[in-house]
Specification:
The structure holds three protein chains of three kinds.
Chain A lengths: L5 E16 L5 E16 L3 E5 L6 H8 L7 E6 L2 E2 L5 H8 L2 E4 L13 H11 L8 H11 L16 H14 L4 E5 L7 H18 L2 E6 L2 H7 L2 E6 L2 E7 H6 L4 H9 L5 H6 L30 H5 L5 E4 L2 E3 L6
Parallel strand pairs in A: 3-8, 3-9, 6-7, 7-8
Antiparallel strand pairs in A: 1-2, 1-4, 4-5, 9-10, 10-12, 11-12
Chain B lengths: L18 H11 L1 H23 L31 H37 L1 H16 L2 H27 L7 H33 L2 H8 L4 H38 L10 H10 L5 H29 L6
Helix pairs in contact in B: 1-10, 2-3, 2-10, 3-4, 3-6, 3-8, 3-10, 4-6, 5-6, 6-8, 7-8, 8-9, 8-10, 9-10
Chain C lengths: L4 H15 L4 E12 L2 E13 L4 E5 L6 H8 L7 E10 L2 E2 L5 H10 L1 E4 L3 H4 L6 H13 L3 H14 L18 H13 L5 E5 L7 H18 L2 E6 L2 H4 L5 E6 L2 E7 H6 L4 H9 L50 E2 L7 E2 L13
Parallel strand pairs in C: 3-8, 3-9, 6-7, 7-8
Antiparallel strand pairs in C: 1-2, 1-4, 4-5, 9-10, 10-12, 11-12
Helix pairs in contact in C: 5-6, 6-7
The chains are: A alpha/beta, B mainly alpha, C alpha/beta.
Chain lengths: 326, 319, 350
């Protein structure tokens, strides 16, 4: 099941963005992107974060890596609280906490060759010297399935899938222990997605990596996760082992989400009865009071509007935030 | 069921091409831009070698041959002191170029440093720099140049006098230096704000691009990020602005010389030649036509080149 | 050959539909783009048809030409791209030889479009009611009042709560799902004979996508339109369409009724695609995903034979010589595949 001891422990993680609205920027609103997330990430596992737009999953990944500041809460890693460290103190740690972003077309510097791009972190983090860097780059390219001659190419000459491999190689160049895959395959074609998923799994085995996999495609998530966390409007709805979440979901939102996913099976699709959620996702600038899902929840009661449900461990290793999940 | 082939099958067939090379290729294909480039290169050549090739010394006067129309001996004729207009125009090219390059270089350095700092670090620094650009741009050019000239000229002249007395080196006697320093200085001080704004806007936009965030996530230090990730991507519009700016600086110098606050006679500048020629153009049109046409020619060249660079460096559909 | 009962029923329903001429019939469509090294073929001889009242799924990955194929039918190709061959007959008229004026009547009037991104496909400075009314006034000659009334009906038809009361809203005031409903309403406004939906749910969340799919299903049943649904998502259209064509590198490689396609995919590319999709319910989770090695060829760099040959696990010598033609798996069968290895029979001259 889930692997070793916790690599990262996150407590009460909160991130709010102040935003100015109105033609003259006169109205100030707060976007409550994340509100009090509590969870652990275990060494060697793949924890997936799923949810729809506005749920805060990308913000969670970015905040975890301290790509911006934290409003409240703590991120404990190797005895340090990342939330409290400044940029200078964080920099050496960044090598161990890497990220692969969604869009392979914009995360590579258009003015650097592939070789230079991968060499930069190798040299900076002292994983290679000027003399050994070429071989190291070749080794990393081979790890991600690209031939050495690609190192003299520029990003715009490569396809989307090839670029994403370069991005992965660049992240590996730092020698990380933890990698956030922020919708790393969403922008790729279907047949390429499968290749990259396989690559990510191979690399995890080879280097003992821990993944936080942020995605919206539940079928992919089911394929690669150890544990799954479902987010809605900045809070966790549910977090548990993969099979438990997919086979026996506890939260009404998880159930609706699973019901909405189509399967490539015409007979099954024609005959199934879907649970269709009414209405749209509320804005994170003005989230509903109490349980944020209550406006669309098929089993909502008065208490759901009044009290925020507690984040509790309903089954061993399986947390949920709902008044009525048993 | 799985394919047996390596994923890197679709390999780019052309040789590696950086974006600069692609841009160069687009530039060379643009006829107007190439014409502009030709003109600029020609002018640069004239600026460097022209005076050496000039048939006559631009200072030598031949009072018997005043205001002669163009002939084989004097390609552009002579002026009212009998000086060869062609040679003077060639010297004017050097003046124009030296001033344009020096002024633009100083302005670009000031602009890039201030603009990049303002864009990257933001906050109070940004506000201060922007305030400075606003103030500089709102003061009328001519006024500023006149003020700088009149207030700096006497102390500068006195300082040079002192140096001469101290060293007895004739170089300090050369009044041309004063002219040039004042011209460069004052012109640079009025032309740097657009560069600062441009660079600041570029840095602001690039700072939030995904590849810069990725560089931060890799733990790379600020200096590396600025030098390898931000500046190279900001060069495109800067190059275009510089090319157009050189042309503008040339015209500006001519305008100031024309008004008498720039380069002073006897140093030839197209501007003061135009000023002189304007007075007598009905009788001696060649005195006006020669420098005016050269100035127009130069401006057109820079303009075409600037447009061509813009199209080459910012093609539709690419960053 | 043995015919199980459902297959036989399907076949006779297929025969009945085939007895009528297809409402849209495209043959050997060729679309080229001007590149640095000369013209390159993006669509290379695509042939397909749409029967009256059926929903056709067009499946392919990026670069296969699926969107361009549809846009070319109404003359909406971008600048450097042109149709250089083939014909497209809509209810007896050849679209590719029409003048711009005639095409303008077809657009919106006979063929409705629903585009992918509702944020950029709606005019941000025009109220929704006006955007809905425009095609009605233009193509159906309605007055402003009549058009507004019909617009209100359309809003209710596509399930926008409050119907007419939201006619004066601007696009940015609506959510993504609402905007897409508005796009569908605009596409349907003039009751076109054919509705072409180009990846209409790709930009939407999965729960909103489910709502839109539900909407389209109910509209289909109610209005009996012929629909073309373009997508890369094989899971999405499984329950939505009657027939599927699969595009690869600008050609149609497979054309089959939907149940057949998923149960017995004929072309190695289709098989590879279906095998590489992770499933929500079936299969062993965590096992390695079957993937198709390599990447699709660029237009202009396609191999001389079958475009899929370099990546095909079942490639034979003949595959490199000439591209295979679409042919049925057995005489008269509606399931057609363009593959030498699939065991197709040559059809009598069409």
């Amino acid at each position: 099941m889930s692997a070793g001891p916790p690599l990262l422990r996150i407590e009460g993680l909160t991130k709010h963005f102040p935003v100015r609205l109105g033609a003259f920027g006169e109205r100030r609103v707060t976007v409550r992107a994340l509100d009090g997330l509590d969870f652990e990430i275990h060494e060697g596992e793949t924890l997936s974060l799923v949810g729809e737009s506005g749920c805060g999953k990308s913000t969670a990944g970015n905040t975890l890596l301290r790509l911006h500041s934290v409003t409240a809460g703590s991120i404990l890693y190797k005895g340090l609280d990342l939330a409290r460290l400044d940029e200078k103190a964080l920099r050496p740690l960044r090598a161990e906490l890497q990220v692969v972003f969604q869009d392979p077309y914009s995360t590579l510097n258009p003015r650097m060759t592939i070789g230079e791009e991968i060499a930069a972190p190798l040299l900076h983090h002292r994983k290679a010297t000027r003399r050994t860097v070429r071989d190291e780059v070749a080794r990393l390219l081979a790890d991600v399935g690209l031939p050495t001659r690609f190192s003299s190419r520029y990003p715009h000459e490569l396809s989307g899938g090839q670029r994403q491999r370069v991005v992965i190689a660049r992240a590996l160049a730092c020698g990380p222990r933890f990698v956030v895959c922020d919708e790393a395959i969403s922008a790729l074609d279907v047949s390429i997605q499968a290749q990259i998923i396989n690559l990510l799994q191979d690399l995890q085995e080879k280097y003992g990596l821990t993944y936080l996999f942020i995605a919206h495609d539940l079928a992919v998530v089911r394929h690669i996760s150890t544990r799954v966390a479902v987010m809605y409007l900045g809070r966790f709805a549910e977090l548990g082992p993969r099979e438990a979440v997919f086979e026996a979901p506890l939260h009404p939102y998880t159930k609706a989400l699973l019901s909405a996913v189509p399967e490539p099976d015409p007979v099954h699709e024609r005959s199934r009865r879907r649970q269709i959620l009414e209405g749209d996702v509320p804005s994170p600038m003005d989230p509903p009071p109490g349980c944020r899902f209550h406006t669309r929840c098929p089993v909502a009661q008065d208490v759901c509007r009044e009290r925020v449900p507690q984040w509790r461990e309903a089954r061993p290793g399986h947390h949920v935030a709902c008044h009525f999940a048993e | 069921m799985t394919g047996t082939l390596s994923p890197a099958l679709s390999e780019p067939a052309d040789p590696p091409a950086s974006l600069w090379r692609d841009a160069w290729r687009r530039l060379t294909r643009n006829r107007l831009a190439m014409a502009g480039l030709l003109i600029v290169v020609l002018l640069a050549f004239l600026a460097v070698f022209g005076p050496a090739l000039a048939p006559h010394d631009f200072l030598s006067q031949d009072l018997d041959a005043r205001n002669r129309a163009p002939s084989l001996a004097h390609l552009f004729g002579t002026d009212d002191l009998g000086r060869d207009v062609f040679s003077r125009v060639l010297h004017g090219a050097r003046t124009a170029f030296v001033v344009a390059i020096a002024v633009t270089a100083i302005a670009v350095v000031i602009g890039v440093v201030l603009g990049a700092a303002a864009g990257y670090f933001g906050g109070l620094l940004d506000t201060a720099v922007m305030w400075l650009t606003d103030v500089t741009m709102s003061v009328p050019n001519l006024l500023l140049v006149v003020v700088i000239n009149t207030s700096l000229k006497p102390p500068l002249a006195r300082w040079m006098e002192e140096r001469y007395l101290a060293t007895l080196d004739p170089i300090w006697r050369n009044a041309i230096w004063i002219d040039f320093i004042l011209v460069f200085g004052s012109m640079a001080l009025i032309t740097w704000p657009p560069y600062a704004r441009l660079v600041r806007a570029q840095v602001l936009s690039i700072r939030n691009r995904p590849y810069v965030t990725a560089a931060r996530a890799l733990g790379l230090p600020t200096a590396t990020i600025l030098m390898r990730y931000i500046v190279p991507n900001a060069l495109g519009p800067l190059i275009v602005a510089v090319s157009a700016g050189l042309g503008t600086a040339m015209v500006l110098e001519s305008a100031f010389s024309f008004l008498g606050v720039g380069v002073h006679p006897p140093t030839p500048s197209w501007g003061n030649m135009i000023s002189d020629g304007l007075r007598v153009w009905q009788h001696h049109p060649h005195l006006l036509a020669a420098p005016a046409l050269m100035l127009a020619f130069a401006t057109v060249g820079f303009s075409f080149l600037g447009d061509g660079l813009n199209d080459a460096l910012n093609p539709k559909g690419m960053t | 050959m043995t015919a199980a009962a459902p297959a036989a029923a399907q076949k006779s329903a297929g025969d009945a539909a085939a007895a009528q001429a297809p409402i849209l019939d495209v043959r050997d469509l060729v679309i080229e783009i001007a590149t640095r090294n000369g013209p390159a073929r993006i669509v290379d001889g695509a042939s397909f048809h749409l029967d009256r009242g059926e929903t056709l799924g067009v499946v392919g990955e990026s670069g296969c030409g699926k969107s361009l194929t549809m846009l070319s039918l109404v003359g909406l190709l971008p600048n450097k791209i042109r149709v250089t061959g083939g014909n497209a007959v809509l209810e007896g008229r050849d679209l590719l030889s029409m003048s711009t004026r005639e095409l303008r009547k077809v657009r919106g009037g006979d063929v409705g479009f629903v585009f992918q991104d509702p944020m950029t496909s709606l005019n941000p400075v025009m109220r929704i009611g006006d955007q809905l009314a425009e095609p009605l006034i233009h193509h159906r000659g309605m007055t402003k009042k009549e058009a507004r009334a019909r617009a209100g009906e359309l809003m209710r038809l596509v399930g926008i709560p409050g119907g007419e009361s939201r006619l004066d809203a601007y696009p940015h005031e609506l959510s993504g799902g609402m905007r897409q409903r508005v796009m569908i309403a605009i596409g349907l406004a003039c009751e076109p004979s054919v509705l072409i939906a180009d990846e209409p749910t790709t930009a939407l969340d999965v729960t909103i996508q489910a709502q839109i799919v539900d909407l389209v299903k109910s509209l289909r049943a109610r209005l009996g339109m012929s629909v073309v649904w373009i997508t890369h998502d094989l899971a999405l259209i499984a329950g939505l369409v009657d027939r599927v064509i699969v595009l690869y590198a600008g050609t149609v490689v497979e054309d089959a009724p939907v149940d057949d396609l998923y149960a017995r995919p004929g072309h190695p590319y289709t098989r590879g695609l279906l095998a590489s999709i992770p499933r929500l319910t079936a299969g062993v989770a965590g096992a390695r995903l079957a993937s198709i090695g390599g990447t699709p060829p660029e237009p202009g760099r396609r191999p001389p034979g079958c475009p899929f040959a370099p990546r095909c696990p079942e490639k034979m010598a003949v595959c490199d010589t000439a591209p295979p033609r679409l042919a049925p798996l057995s005489p008269g069968h509606r399931h057609r595949v363009a593959c030498y290895a699939a065991g197709t029979v040559t059809e009598a001259a069409e």
